[in-house]
Write a structure and sequence with these properties.
Blueprint (H helix, E strand, L loop, with lengths): L1 H7 L4 E2 L2 H11 L6 E5 L5 H7 L4 E5 L3 H11 L5 E4 L14 E5 L5 H9 L7 E7 H5 L10 H6 L3 E8 L5 E2 L6 E8 L10 H14 L8 H7 L9 H17 L13
Parallel strand pairs: 2-3, 2-5, 3-4, 5-6
Antiparallel strand pairs: 1-8, 6-9, 7-9
Helix pairs in contact: 2-3, 8-10
Length: 260
């Protein structure tokens, strides 16, 4: 049952505890931090996080894995176990960091939920597919809309590329350790966040070639176009419908979600 469920949820679990320790050390998580873990799985990351942090909120949607985690680690007073879909769960209101081996099939949805929230994490350390990670990062050639939306508020980098044999079951794609750090001083004032987001979505909707703009152009041009008001909210609503269809496409009645 677990094997089938892991496949559906795109889960590949880390094998080595020494590697987990090195990754947690690289994340900068300490005893002062509350940590959100998404997709706790077998608990190998959970155990490592409990050894260094003040509190761990471990979320696992699979009821069998959740029961296994509860029996192993449920008595630890620093651990809050939650059996839920992370996309339907309220994020912490207190300052927090994220350290997770997230389900690969919903990587984009999870990252958007975290970084577009009213209380984004101070940092995210995520095990993700390398190809997906690169879409969140800015470069000097061509950038995705998401990378430009995140850029003023977050520094995003790949700090480690895994061997495929680091996981079970062995993945068919390359995985990496993606680190997202909230900027102490944003490149754009939070007061202008809505204007900037509207501008970026409006421009990408009209012409994908804007991905080739230099980063500095995005930071100075967003206040000059008043036609794009409401574009970001409209895009979020459209994305929500598409993501709902994606998550329910195995239901023979999945098409009904497109009209809601």
């Amino acid at each position: 049952m677990f094997k089938t469920r892991r496949k559906l949820l795109s889960q590949n679990f880390l094998r080595g505890r020494d590697l987990v320790k090195r990754l947690i050390a690289a994340s900068g998580i300490s005893w002062k931090n509350t940590v959100l873990e998404i997709g706790a799985g077998s608990g190998i990351l959970t155990e490592g996080l409990l050894s260094v942090s003040k509190k761990v909120i471990a979320v696992e949607i699979d009821k069998g894995l959740f029961a296994h985690l509860s029996s192993r680690l449920g008595n630890n007073i620093a651990l809050e176990l939650v059996c839920s879909d992370i996309l339907a769960l309220d994020l912490p209101r207190e300052p927090y960091k994220v350290f997770s081996n997230i389900p690969f099939s919903i990587t984009g949805e999870i990252v958007k939920k975290l970084l577009f929230s009213d209380n984004p994490p101070d940092s995210c350390s995520l095990i993700v597919q390398k190809e997906a990670a690169e879409k969140f990062m800015v470069n000097q050639r061509k950038n995705s809309m998401l990378s430009i939306l995140f850029y003023p508020w977050f520094e995003i980098k790949i700090s480690h590329v895994f061997k495929r044999t680091d996981f079970t079951p062995t993945p068919e794609v390359d995985l990496c350790f993606l680190q997202i750090i909230k900027r102490l001083t944003p490149l754009i004032s939070n007061n202008d966040m809505s204007k900037y987001r509207d501008f970026v979505v409006f421009k990408f909707t009209k012409c994908r070639a804007v991905g080739e703009w230099p980063l500095t152009q995005w930071l100075i041009a967003y206040t000059k176009d008043v036609r794009c008001r409401g574009s970001f909210l409209k895009w979020q609503k459209e994305q929500s419908k598409l993501e709902k269809i994606h998550r329910t496409r195995t239901d023979r009645n999945w098409r009904k979600f497109g009209s809601q």
